[in-house]
Write a structure and sequence with these properties.
There is one protein chain. The chain is of the alpha+beta class. 52% of the residues lie in helices and 8% in strands. The protein has 8 helices and 4 strands; from the N terminus they run E-H-E-H-E-E-H-H-H-H-H-H. Strand 3 and strand 4 form a beta hairpin.
Length: 211
């Protein structure tokens, strides 16, 4: 049994964490959770009271929320160099983009997806601001390349690339060339390919099992 247990569903944000785990190339136990009652059992609610995936248990430590899991894993395995050094000038941008994607980006794209109102009357109170500003901010940064924090691939790239890919696919974000080029670059990584293959195969197995 591995020290790390990964709770996920292949049709969830757990795919982001799977990619992170494949980048780390560490052993882990997989616990596949079906949507519905299976995520609301007392046993799983003791792991995540929200009844959501992904989550990890690492020894006695439980971590939920995608950005938090990615940040935790990067810091827990510093030899994998998936986070800038604590005293590095890139550490600030690294934190910035992790929280930007989990906060303003996800809020603004969700507002687009569900037609929530963000306009002159409430934009100052809404933490995400306008979607156009979110898009412009990311576009300006990614144009500098090659990675979101400069010259080093980090856990922030796992998060940024995954969320960009999803929102472009869902048509909540324009497929601008800089976004496409960045996502294609990140998705070409061997760990990203392995993670996608593993989750695609798992999704197919689950569909067959429930058919």
């Amino acid at each position: 049994m591995s020290e790390l247990t990964f709770y996920t569903n292949p049709m969830s944000r757990g795919r982001v964490v799977r990619w992170m785990l494949e980048e780390l190339a560490i052993p882990y136990d997989l616990k596949v959770m079906a949507f519905g009652p299976g995520m609301k059992t007392p046993e799983y609610l003791a792991i995540n009271p929200m009844g959501k995936v992904p989550a990890i248990r690492h020894g006695d430590m439980v971590v939920t929320e995608v950005a938090a899991i990615c940040a935790y894993l990067a810091d827990r395995f510093p030899e994998k160099q998936l986070a800038p050094a604590v005293n590095s000038p890139e550490r600030g941008p690294y934190y910035r983009w992790l929280f930007f994607m989990a906060g303003p980006f996800e809020m603004a794209t969700s507002a687009k997806a569900y037609d929530w109102r963000i306009d002159d009357d409430n934009v100052q109170a809404v933490g995400s601001g306008r979607l156009d500003d979110v898009i412009q901010t990311l576009e300006q940064t990614l144009a500098k390349g090659p990675y979101i924090c400069g010259e080093q691939f980090t856990a922030a790239d796992v998060l940024v690339s995954s969320y960009l890919w999803w929102e472009m696919m869902q048509k909540n974000l324009p497929s601008r060339q800089v976004f496409q080029d960045y996502v294609n670059h990140m998705e070409s990584r061997p760990a990203a390919k392995r993670a996608n293959q593993l989750d695609d195969e798992l999704a197919e197995q689950m569909n067959v099992a429930t058919a």
